[in-house]
Amino acid sequence: MIEYPSIESLIGQTPLVRLQRLNPNPSNTILLKLEGQNPAGSVKDRPALNMIVQAELRGDIKPGDSLIEATSGNTGIALAMAAAIKGYKMHLIMPDNMSQERKSAMSAYGAVLHLVSKEEGMERARDLAQEMQEQGKGIVLNQFANPDNPSAHYVSTGPEIWQQTQGTVTHFISSMGTTGTIMGVSHYLKEQNSDIQIVGLQPQDGASIPGIRRWPKEYLPSIFEETRVDRIMDVSQDVAETTMRRLAREEGIFCGVSSGGSVGTALALSEELNNAVIVAIICDRGDRYLSTGLFDH
């Protein structure tokens, strides 16, 4: 009997491709991990499924339960997909300034959206998730404190990068939101070679880049371990958006703003280094940002 794959089996094993034209130093290799190739379109597919599967295995949840999560977009889309696969009701809380494509994608998967104002932001979204749980409206998965978030990257993203580069990676760059990606990948890669440099990105003061944050201390994700990041760099709005557009127009790589920030930082690092193999995470696809007009410049 033929064993056909299910949709969840398509999560992970994303391609790693070489930057061809933008790299300022030909002695370096810049590689991009195309996480937009996941079924729901982002790197968050990995932890979304893992958080639900692991909670099921512990007996914390069962199909038919209601789940709750605060999200700025990609995690919400991924959780809406994972909940649909596994048979859960999904309540998602997000700031109302997120792109219409993100909201529509969540609704398409059957999730119920709860919006807070742009001014209240993710801090209020996270607080409201906890309030809803206390009111008995569902169970919060809490990507910001859930070890099943970084563990998804420890068991999949990190090993894939190591294997795809045949162990030659010297620098890993990731934008930081929940910090799950950078924590899990750092944990794995440092076990293979402690000299690999882990670079985390946060937005420059005043920048508003979807998916990455400069968290107030009281809201810093508890899964974040400072010792796992060798260098934290700020990325400006202009660099993130300009690089995003250049990736589409000069490399044929259609991605979002935080991915533009990651690659912009990779380009800056490439000017400092020689004979390096730099891997940057392309978090998602550009089609979920079209209504923002960012590609019209």
UniProtKB/TrEMBL annotation:
Claim: Coiled coil is one of the keywords in the record: no
Regions that span the bilayer: none
Listed InterPro entries: Cys_synth, Cys_Synth/Cystath_Beta-Synth, CysM, P-phosphate_BS, TrpB-like_PALP, TrpB-like_PALP_sf
One Pfam family it belongs to: PALP
Chain positions recorded as pyridoxal 5'-phosphate binding sites: N74, G177, T178, T179, G180, T181, S258
Cofactor section: pyridoxal 5'-phosphate
MF GO annotations: cysteine synthase activity
Classification via SUPFAM superfamilies: Tryptophan synthase beta subunit-like PLP-dependent enzymes (SSF53686)
Keyword field: Amino-acid biosynthesis, Cysteine biosynthesis, Pyridoxal phosphate, Transferase
Residue positions, PTM N6-(pyridoxal phosphate)lysine: K44
Source species, domain of life: Bacteria
EC number per UniProt: 2.5.1.47
Catalytic activity: O-acetyl-L-serine + hydrogen sulfide = L-cysteine + acetate
Domain Tryptophan synthase beta chain-like PALP: 8-284
Pathway(s) the chain acts in: Amino-acid biosynthesis; L-cysteine biosynthesis; L-cysteine from L-serine: step 2/2
Record family assignment: Belongs to the cysteine synthase/cystathionine beta-synthase family.
NCBIfam families reported for this sequence: cysKM, cysM, PRK11761.1
Name of protein: Cysteine synthase
Species name: Marinomonas algarum
Organism taxonomic ancestry: Bacteria, Pseudomonadati, Pseudomonadota, Gammaproteobacteria, Oceanospirillales
Gene from which this protein is expressed: cysM
